[in-house]
Write a structure and sequence with these properties.
The chain is α+β, with helices and mostly antiparallel strands. The chain has 15 helices and 14 strands. It folds into two domains: 339 residues, Beta Barrel (Catalase HpII,  Chain A, domain 1), CATH 2.40.180.10; 95 residues, no CATH class. Strand 6 and strand 7 form a beta hairpin. The longest helix is centred in the middle third of the chain and has 17 residues. The chain is globular and about 80 Å long. One of its GO terms (biological process) is response to hydrogen peroxide.
């Protein structure tokens, strides 16, 4: 391979210092400034805001990520319960409480890294974004097909995407760039174990799970909050592809998943998902080896089961791809009353980034477009005016001269303050914090490896070995070191398949500035209950 970075140039004292665009030295590029280890983040995160807003503007006009996508219309219907309890015990959100109501939805599925014309057989997480046009306004649930992510702090998102995107010199996706980043970020091991297995290539969009990934909060009428994870479980079952199966499909069709979704809806074979939640009491949960706000970790389903909440059916294709699918815009900050933010640092960073991206990509009035506007009964009424592509003025309460509030001459007023507001006590020292609960950076990846079926482990090892043979030796050795600490068999098999010296890999010291991983030993066999707890939810294709 050519154009590999010179490993001698990696000496810390010879490398230029990272700075902001103002030329200020960056002393911590790993964490947002937050109030205490668990947040919340603060608005005066200048370094992060400069970094993420520049990142949001890096591509014109397609999305920086999730550029290749397909969409469909449908509806959502709540069961009125969360498990066996009334949904109102947990949330006052009408969309999750009212039965017999079909809430309109628009869903956009996507790949993450490739451009608009990239193949849908790529080994890549899939986006799963749902816009629910509720009677109380829009609720956007923006997530992926897998239940975890590569990183847990939003300040690392531009770095991660840069590492996964094509090389700025060769314009090729180079494995060494991906593993160079991952080898320095042990939190990514769990996601890598998923993505490099057959679960990294869903067979299509209909037979694919969805997850909000982030941790949110449900809030009830009494102002009591619970932490929550949102999940979409396909009634069609889950099916994935091996690399060989994906290559065979790609040889004849680079847009097979878009075609599959469109044709299924046209013939009346409407895809359906059950909407489920995992619920946890609000708090730090020191009894867990991981922070429940950490997006790189799963909540064990034997402790926090998936509870059915409702169902979603997609039954209508867009009339125009550009007007609807391409111009559809989603944001993690688009919530309805009864659903609130947690201090999940990825969620807080995405909430700024996603909507900022849409204002740049589509324009400041992107919410006036029919595909993005709330349904008629919840029409927007604001004092925001003008801007690029404004084509109507919001209903200003009968007096369009008054575009401010408060006013004694008409205009808009504040809503009645019904219900008890959710309040969270926040105090702590302002600084940059990384989570101190990192044991599961290795444990959950090892659990996932041990729970795979034999054919899935074989495919995972082959995919990793194929990649690591293309990486510089220091990166390959470090990756084997990581895999060995997840599971001895995992590391040994990858080393053997890739022709890497396992003894040299095991002899590496821990990463500078990071705690040495605790080695997690676990028998290769599981009781049925333990296997279910780690997760074997659905049948995958063999």
């Amino acid at each position: 391979m050519t154009d590999k970075p010179n490993s001698q140039a990696s000496k810390q004292d010879e490398r230029p210092v990272l700075t902001t665009r103002q030329g200020h030295p960056v002393r911590d590029n790993q964490a947002l400034r937050s109030v205490g280890e668990r947040g919340p983040a603060t608005l005066e995160n200048y370094q992060f805001i400069e970094k993420i807003t520049h990142f949001d503007r890096e591509r014109i006009p397609e999305r920086v990520v999730h550029a290749r996508g397909a969409g469909a219309h449908g509806w959502f219907e709540a069961y009125g319960k969360i498990g066996d309890e009334p949904a109102s015990n947990y949330t006052r959100a009408r969309v999750l409480n009212e039965t017999g109501v079909k809430t309109p939805v628009f869903v956009r599925f996507s790949t993450v890294i490739g451009g608009k014309d990239s193949p849908e057989t790529a080994r890549d997480p899939r986006g799963f974004a749902v816009k629910l046009k509720t009677v109380e306004g829009n609720w956007d649930l923006v997530g992926n097909n897998l239940k975890v992510f590569f990183i847990r702090d939003a300040i690392k998102f531009p770095d991660m995407i840069h590492a996964f995107k094509p090389d700025p010199v060769t314009n090729r996706q180079e494995p060494w760039r991906f593993y160079d980043f991952v080898s320095q970020s042990p939190e990514a091991l769990h996601m890598v174990t998923w993505v490099k297995s057959p679960w990294g290539i869903p067979a299509n969009y209909r037979e694919m799970e969805g997850s909000g990934v982030n941790t949110y909060k449900l809030v009830n009428d009494a102002g009591v909050a619970h932490l929550v994870k949102f999940h979409w479980q396909p009634k069609q079952g889950v099916r994935n592809l091996t690399s060989q199966e994906a290559a065979a499909i790609q040889a004849g069709d680079t847009g097979h998943a878009t075609r599959d979704l469109y044709e299924a809806i046209e013939r009346g074979d409407y895809p359906e998902w059950e909407f489920c939640v995992q619920i946890m009491s609000d708090g730090d949960h020191p009894e867990l080896d991981f922070d429940p706000l950490d997006d790189t970790k799963r909540w064990p389903e034997d402790q926090f089961p998936l509870l059915p909440v409702g169902r979603m059916v997609l039954d209508r294709n867009p009339d125009n791809f550009f007007a609807e699918t391409e111009q559809s815009a989603f944001g993690t900050g688009v919530l309805v009353d009864g659903i609130d933010f947690s201090d999940d640092k990825m969620l807080q960073g995405r909430t700024l980034s996603y909507s900022d991206t849409q204002r740049y990509r589509v324009g400041p009035n992107y919410l006036q477009l029919p595909i993005n506007a709330p349904q008629q009964g919840a029409r927007a009424r604001t004092n925001q005016r003008d801007g690029q592509m404004a084509y109507y003025v919001d209903d200003a309460g009968g007096n369009k001269h008054i575009n401010y509030e408060p006013s004694g001459l008409g205009g808009l007023r504040e809503a009645d303050r019904n219900g008890k507001e959710y309040h969270q006590w926040v105090e702590g020292h302002l600084g940059r914090y990384q989570t101190s609960r990192t044991l599961d950076d290795y444990r959950q990846a090892g659990d996932r490896y041990r729970t795979f079926e034999d054919w899935e482990r074989d495919d995972l090892v082959k995919n990793l070995a194929d990649d690591l043979r293309q990486c510089p030796e220091p990166i390959a050795l470090r990756m084997v070191w990581h895999f060995w600490h997840c599971d001895e068999d995992y590391g040994r098999r990858v080393a053997e398949a890739a022709g890497i010296d396992l003894a040299r890999a095991k002899a590496l010291p821990p990463l500078p500035g990071k705690a040495a991983p605790h080695q997690v030993r676990q028998a290769a066999t599981y009781t049925d209950g333990a296997r279910e707890g780690v997760e074997r939810e659905t049948e995958v294709s063999k």
